[in-house]
Fold this protein.
Amino acid sequence: GRSKAVDKNGKDDVIIKDGKLIQGVIDKNTIGGEAGLMLRSIHKRYGEDKTIKILGNIFRLGIKVLLKRGFTTDIVDSDIPENARIRIKELLNKAEDDVNGLINLYHQGKLEVFPGRTAKETLELKILEILNRVRNETGKVVMEYSKKRTHSLIMAESGARGNNLNIAQMAAVIGQQALRGKRIEKGYVGRTLSHFRRGDLSPEAHGFISSGFKSGMSPFEFFFGAITGRDSLMDTALRTPKSGYLYRRLANAMQDLRVEYDGTVRDASGKIIQFSYGEDGIDVSKSESGKINVQSVMAGVR
């Protein structure tokens, strides 16, 4: 399989021969809980007992390494130099000017409207695009100037915890807080919070946080962060029972389906549901992301 990170030679293909790591990096993509292709390959080739033994050895090896070397993060991991802060400020100022230009066009009635959208909907979509783009651009600046090989970056690259966006949000800009795919609009009559005038369409009045977690947020930025955080928490709590019940209904509805010897999927009365299982005939439990690695199969036959 392929690792998320690359080795010192820039290779992401993981190759192990005679118990030695020849190429690649062992990370979340290879031994992770869901995406671990290496573990799946070991299980398919050597069985459950061997896989459990290998997992135990990996666990004990990890403990030994941590006891000898240690692994921790530091507040300075997210430090960036002053010239990086200047570049980020310039990007934010340009984005603010672009948004203000769109708002002026909207008030003048000169904004080019998307097909099937109102002028207000078009404005919101264009503003959201600009603000999401500037967050990504500031993230690239942070990655360019941040200290290399810090433990925070190692965790993000290996897939152990967090990602590059989290590091950028700590160091530079948290970015636009979206509620159900839109800028924050709910709140008081004509405005989101009492900090703003009625009818204010500016980025900061609708959930754009230009501060980073490390530098600290203003009160209204904190409120916007709490709004989306609360929505995410409720969504998680409500989605869990819904998805479980949906699976139960689907399992009951499809319990009489089976794959016949001619490759078709049929129900109890013999009616054809699919001419080929999954439309491609591939068993996803025995494939790599829905694909069949023919070379790996041939190597196993040899």
The domain at 76-232 is CATH 1.10.132.30 (Topoisomerase I; Chain A, domain 4). Strands lie at 15-17, 20-23, 175-176, 178-179, 182-183, 208-209, 258-259, 265-266, 272-274. The first helix runs from residue 28 to 31.
